[in-house]
Amino acid sequence: MGNYIATVSPLEAHLMARVQARDEGAFGELFTRFQERIYRTALRILKEDYSAQDALQETFLNIFRGARHFRGDSRLTTWINRITVNVCLEMIRKNKKHSQRLDADISETAEFPDPSARTPFEEALQRETSQKIHSALEGLGDKHSRVVRLHDLKGHTISEIAGIMGVPEGTVKSRLYYGRKALKKELVH
């Protein structure tokens, strides 16, 4: 049964296909979904807000530039996390003194608009995408739909889902595999 659990989910594949097609709404959705995680990772590595904000911006530039190279042989979260870590390491290499910034740096006290605020168009696009996904999930049947929802949307592990549903882990893996396969088929058409 092997590798399919570690690969990208149909939801992530659909999102990345849109990003690769340079769909601005998809890139906005990707930003909204991952900005906080990227920022926290960068802050843990770089130890300061200013540098973490820079790393956040640079990471999304690298995601945008490298989207066509995403093949889906790892989870989207893993791919983005690797980009974030590489950006942070590069920042450290370029500026060994990144943590010794001047206290009077005006950029630390400047107010910036909320980057997570979405335009009405982005919100409408998000609702439309969400409706398509939920419609596709409804068409899967209860067993497969529930496993896909628990794993891909709510982030439960295989063993947690097995406990919730009272079935063996192998059954959960099988349902997840076939559920994702059917969902992907539904979303691609």
In short:
By secondary structure, the protein is mostly helical.
Fold and architecture overview:
The protein is mainly α. It folds into 2 domains: 97 residues, Orthogonal Bundle (Rna Polymerase Sigma Factor, Chain: A), CATH 1.10.1740.10; 71 residues, Arc Repressor Mutant, subunit A (Orthogonal Bundle), CATH 1.10.10. Helix 6 packs across helix 8. The longest helix is centred in the first third of the chain and has 23 residues. The protein is globular. The N terminus is likely disordered.
Helix content: 55-70%
- CATH fold node name of the largest domain: Rna Polymerase Sigma Factor, Chain: A
| Order of helical and strand elements | HHHHHHHH
CATH architecture of the largest domain: Orthogonal Bundle
Number of helices: 8
Describe the biggest sheet?
none
CATH class of the largest domain: Mainly Alpha
Parts with pLDDT < 50 across at least 5 consecutive residues: 1-6
How many whole angstroms does the radius of gyration measure? 19 Å
Total individual domains? 2
Share in β-strands: under 5%
Distance between the termini: 26 Å
**Overall pLDDT, averaged?**
78
CATH superfamily of the largest domain: RNA polymerase sigma factor, region 2, helix turn helix motif
| Apparent shape | globular
Helix/strand-derived category reads mainly alpha
Number of strands: 0
